[in-house]
Design goal:
single chain; about 200 residues; alpha+beta; 4-stranded mixed sheet; 5 helices; 6 strands
């Protein structure tokens, strides 16, 4: 199993203006996590620590639940949810049997959420701040941590250990496996560029 070189620390600063007419507050988030992956493309996020700035929380239990749910939903978007079409435009990924959504096994084994203290927002109702969308974007950091773990795996491949490679979202098991180059993958014949594809991934 490969892990990133160090736990990925992801900081988000949403540059909302504190003056003017556009936005009324500044929002800070920070998280760290370390996913594991193996060479069949399976990945697992063992631990996640998130610190979220929600201003003066109206209900900490609800806010923490929103952060947890938003993060898992964003993680699913960046690691599971893939739209697949036929060359003619017919949707293949219809329904839960073909379109993977995050389930309870996708939730990190240890998910710690804390709320930043003493950061009120004097321009909003009861000094609160947004809590739904910001943790959703934190889910993208899981994909980047997976890519970092793939870099560790590619370094063991002496023939093609380049750390520069294309890695699109979502980080599905197929894409993870294909990105981890090794002797097994080199035995698969290359598909001609003019071959007709059976699917189109968006």
């Amino acid at each position: 199993r490969f892990i990133p070189r160090s736990p990925l620390v992801c900081s988000f600063f949403l540059p909302c203006l504190v003056t003017g007419v556009c936005f009324c507050f500044v929002l800070f988030l920070q998280m760290s996590h370390s996913p594991w992956l193996d060479l069949i493309g399976h990945h697992e996020v063992r631990r996640v620590d998130i610190c979220m700035d929600v201003g003066a929380s109206l209900n900490p239990a609800i806010d923490i639940g929103q952060v947890e749910g938003g993060f898992v939903q964003g993680m699913g978007l960046c690691t599971l949810e893939e739209m697949v079409y036929s060359p003619e435009g017919v949707t293949f990924s219809r329904g839960p049997g073909a379109y993977k959504l995050p389930g309870f096994k996708c939730i990190p084994v240890e998910l710690n959420v804390s709320l930043l203290r003493n950061a009120p927002n004097v321009r909003a109702v009861h000094s609160s701040k947004a809590v739904g969308e910001p943790p959703f974007f934190l889910g993208s950091s899981v994909m980047f941590a997976i890519k970092d773990a793939i870099v560790s795996a590619r370094k063991e491949d002496t023939q093609n250990g380049s750390s520069v490679f294309r890695f699109d979202s979502p980080a599905t098991a197929e894409r993870i496996r294909l990105a981890c180059t090794d002797t097994i993958l080199r035995q698969i014949p290359q598909v001609p560029a003019d071959a007709k594809r059976w699917n189109v991934v968006v």
